[in-house]
Amino acid sequence: MVRNAAERAFLPTRNLLEEIGDMMILTGRTITSALRPPYPYGGEFVSQFLFALRLCWFPLLISTVAICYAAPGLQAANFLTIFGALDRLGGIFVLAAIREIGPNVTAIVLAGVAGTAITADLGARKIREELDALQVLGVDPVKNLVVPRFLALMLVTGLFNVYAILFGLFGGVLAELVNGQPLGPFWDTLFANASTTDLWGSALKTTIFGAIIAIVCCYKGMTASGGAEGVGRAVNQAVVVTFLAIFSFDYVYTQMLLATHPNILVIK
Questions:
Q1: Which domain does 129 fall in, by range?
Q2: DSSP letter string, the chain
Q3: Is residue 265 part of a domain?
Q4: What is the pTM of this model?
Q5: Fewest CB atoms within 10 Å of the CB: 91, 126, 130, 216?
Q6: Domain membership flag for residue 33
């Protein structure tokens, strides 16, 4: 009885570890399939790239401007005004828009829009047994379905990161104008604190976010079961797991970046 109770108590943990292991195996298979010829997924790659681009650009625009204007913009501006140091707002936007808000908002929007669509698409194919039919015909689902989505999301998140940073800075400009301040000090402190490490670190982090979104969503879609209800359950799980994976990786990545580049800790 004690053994059965212990097994039931640790069952969620065991299932989670098994899923993490399966996702790591899928990651390895995806990278191997992407590098090994032939490369039949060109058309699907372009289709998925344009699909994500079309669906995500406007939600990303609104989200980035709103969050950067409200959080580091208005809130930080109100705090800095107390000390008469509103000209330091540009330095704060290096920390906020470039290092964190831009990459995280990009990942959240891509996961919520493109990631859920990928999970639903692959989940429906799994329920209709199309994936099994592809394997019977000798077509590798990983190379033909997972790899193009993996590469497309990595590319589109890296590009959208630039887009998010630009509109995030626009939110800072709006905050400066609302407070009746000239933009010169904002840009001076921004460029004084920004470095190439911030830019490539942000781009690399967001690109890896895209890989995480693709792997989790493809895995959840390809393992869906239980009809239409199972597809909906897979979409819900994909969003939750993706967010947990993104935020966990963000913590580890940020700690490593700050440890290996301590110069970016100094605020000028």
A1: 43-260
A2: -HHHHHHHHHHHHHHHHHHHHHHHHHHHHHHHHHHSSP-TTHHHHHHHHHHHHHHHHHHHHHHHHHHHIIIIIIIHHHHHHHTT-GGGHHHHHIIIIIIIIHHHHHHHHHIIIIIHHHHHHHHHHHHTTHHHHHHHTT--HIIIIIHHHHHHHHHHHHHHHHHHHHHHHHHHHHHHHHTT--SHHHHHHHHHH--HHHHHHHHHHHHHHHHHHHHHHHHHHHT--SHHHHHHHHHHHHHHHHHHHHHHHHHHHHHHHHHH-GGGG---
A3: no
A4: 0.89
A5: 130
A6: no
